[in-house]
């Protein structure tokens, strides 16, 4: 009897141990969540199973999954295995919900998880989504518009710098602009950025990397509250997942995120009325004013130039220069405008010049009155006026033989002298010989010259047919040429596929070489605006052009951030396709 009890107990212990070896559990990221949050549910097993069946998820909408993760390791000869199916759920409303049982089959036996009770409450102020890749990308990627001054004067320069902040926890493989801001109430000027530069900084007290995507100078043209529309980007974000490759390296999941800089409001102040000069035309900044005359002593047949010039920093293109007034005895022509202006983060700087041409109509002394130029000085918040000097002009009598008009209105004349023997170079005697017509007519030279026009006509016809035949295969020739260029420029990048840094350096060089061959520009001139304009002028479609610019920016940005091998393969295929498409179009 005792032996039977012992054998039965041993059998039950072994059976219980065998049953306990298989674990299949369900876990929720939180037992309570707001209606505007997301829930992560993991179904984990410690042995590989088949025929996984998820529950119905009543009261929720599946927004992600199933994502499968497998972990297999050996420690001190002992194997540890786990396999997880993950779902991301979005509540459909408030209430208490039950996540039902999931099923799995292991060695012919069916195992089920226990139900999970979850409560959905009202919306929370700051939603969190656990390990959802979409949420991780949102929390670690920020597009910010930094404005130098939100309370400027009318026509005072302000700068808007758009920065993309990226956390070290993620990486960015590609980005493109979806919606560009329209500055309706501003005069705007973009500052060209030749190459993206990765910098380090902080965002909300945490270390981040960032890149300056765009710099813009704005001059308010109205007073009051003015809106700056947001810049919107589509960014491909590589988020680290729980999975690893066979070498232990972490695998990344690519998520496409849309980020916006947010709407900003500028409160533009009107310029003060106190002390405003009557000749004020809207100049705001810090300026110098000059009237520079040319030669002030001249004859009645000569002309002079006078330059009216404003130099400094401010809204140089948004006001009128003073008009030069001259006496009635001087003839003034319309001025020629010359602009030597550059724009950077310090504003618009340089000079604006009107060059007048003045011609006197009679002899005498004349005075061109001085000019006054007024502007609003930003640093002192006051109006300032700069005055030039009078120009004193002396006009002498026209020189002898000239066509000028003297003071009494008499036009000087000079007699015409006809020298003798002025036709002495003309030969009056000829030395002509008669031509013997019998030696040329009917000769070989005669018939050759007669046949020459017909031979030339036949040659032109044959050449035209040959050119037509070549022209009929233009599309094929272009495709062949595009394929040759693609193989030549992308061969180095393909060899380095898998090596992150070498791959993107080679791919960027391939794109630059293609631009040199097709657009005939050097690397130093390859600004994105210039490339865009040249491609469109060559006949490229806007979609293909923007895709090429996006790929170029992606190469510049991705060289400094880690990327998965899948992302590199996608960029390589995209480069080959875009180059081939552009070559057919242009």
UniProtKB/TrEMBL annotation:
The keyword Transcription regulation does not apply. The keyword Lipoprotein does not apply. Residues 1-20 form the signal peptide. Pfam families: BatD (PF13584). The chain crosses the membrane at residues 444-463. Keywords: Membrane, Signal, Transmembrane, Transmembrane helix. InterPro entries: BatD. This is Protein BatD.
């Amino acid at each position: 009897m005792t032996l039977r009890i012992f054998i039965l107990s041993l059998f039950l212990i072994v059976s219980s141990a065998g049953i306990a070896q298989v674990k299949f559990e369900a876990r929720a990221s939180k037992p309570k969540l707001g209606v505007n949050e997301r829930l992560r549910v993991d179904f984990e097993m410690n042995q590989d199973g088949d025929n996984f069946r998820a529950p119905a998820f009543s009261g929720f909408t599946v927004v992600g999954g199933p994502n499968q993760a497998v972990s297999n390791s050996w420690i001190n000869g002992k194997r540890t295995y786990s396999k997880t199916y993950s779902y991301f759920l979005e509540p459909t409303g408030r209430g208490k919900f039950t996540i039902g049982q999931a099923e799995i089959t292991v060695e012919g036996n069916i195992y089920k998880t226990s139900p999970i009770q979850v409560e959905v409450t009202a919306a929370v102020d700051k939603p969190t989504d656990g390990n959802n890749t979409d949420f991780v990308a949102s929390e670690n990627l920020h597009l910010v518009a930094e404005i130098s001054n939100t309370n400027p004067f009318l026509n005072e320069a302000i700068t808007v710098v758009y920065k993309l902040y990226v956390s070290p926890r993620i990486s960015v493989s590609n980005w493109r602009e979806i919606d560009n801001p329209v500055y309706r109430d501003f005069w705007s000027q973009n500052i060209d950025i030749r190459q993206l530069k990765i910098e380090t900084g902080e965002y909300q007290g945490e270390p981040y990397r960032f890149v300056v995507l765009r710099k813009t100078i704005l001059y308010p043209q109205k007073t009051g509250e003015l809106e700056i529309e947001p810049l919107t980007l589509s960014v491909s974000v590589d988020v680290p997942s729980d999975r690893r490759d066979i070498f232990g390296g972490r695998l990344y999941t690519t998520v496409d995120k849309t980020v916006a800089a947010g709407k900003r409001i500028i409160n533009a102040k009107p310029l003060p009325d106190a002390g405003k000069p009557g000749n004020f035309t809207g100049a705001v900044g810090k300026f110098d004013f000059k009237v520079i005359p040319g030669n002030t002593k001249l004859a009645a047949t000569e002309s002079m130039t006078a330059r009216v010039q404003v130099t400094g920093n401010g809204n140089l293109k948004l006001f009128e220069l003073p008009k030069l007034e001259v006496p009635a005895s001087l003839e003034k022509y319309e001025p020629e405008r010359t602009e030597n202006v550059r724009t950077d983060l310090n504003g618009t700087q340089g000079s604006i010049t009107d060059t007048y041409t003045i011609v006197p109509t009679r002899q005498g002394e004349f005075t061109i009155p001085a000019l006054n130029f007024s502007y609003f000085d930003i640093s002192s918040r006051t109006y300032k006026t700069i005055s030039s000097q009078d120009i004193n002009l002396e006009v002498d009598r026209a020189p002898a033989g000239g066509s000028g008009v003297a003071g009494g209105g008499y036009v000087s004349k000079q007699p015409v002298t006809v020298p003798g023997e002025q036709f002495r170079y003309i030969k009056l005697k000829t030395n002509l010989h008669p031509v013997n017509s019998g030696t040329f007519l009917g000769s070989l030279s005669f018939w050759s010259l007669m046949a020459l026009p017909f031979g030339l006509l036949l040659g032109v016809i044959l050449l035209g047919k040959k050119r037509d035949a070549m022209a009929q295969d233009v599309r094929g020739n272009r495709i062949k040429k595009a394929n040759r260029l693609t193989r030549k420029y992308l061969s180095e990048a393909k060899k380095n596929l898998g090596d992150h840094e070498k791959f993107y350096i080679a791919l960027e060089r391939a794109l630059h070489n293609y631009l040199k061959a097709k657009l005939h520009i050097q690397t130093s001139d390859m600004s994105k605006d210039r490339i865009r304009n040249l491609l469109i002028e060559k006949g490229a479609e806007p979609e293909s052009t923007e895709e090429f610019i996006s790929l170029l920016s992606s190469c510049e940005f991705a060289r400094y951030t880690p990327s998965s091998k899948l992302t590199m393969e996608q960029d390589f295929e995209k480069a080959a396709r875009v180059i081939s498409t552009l070559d057919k179009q242009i």
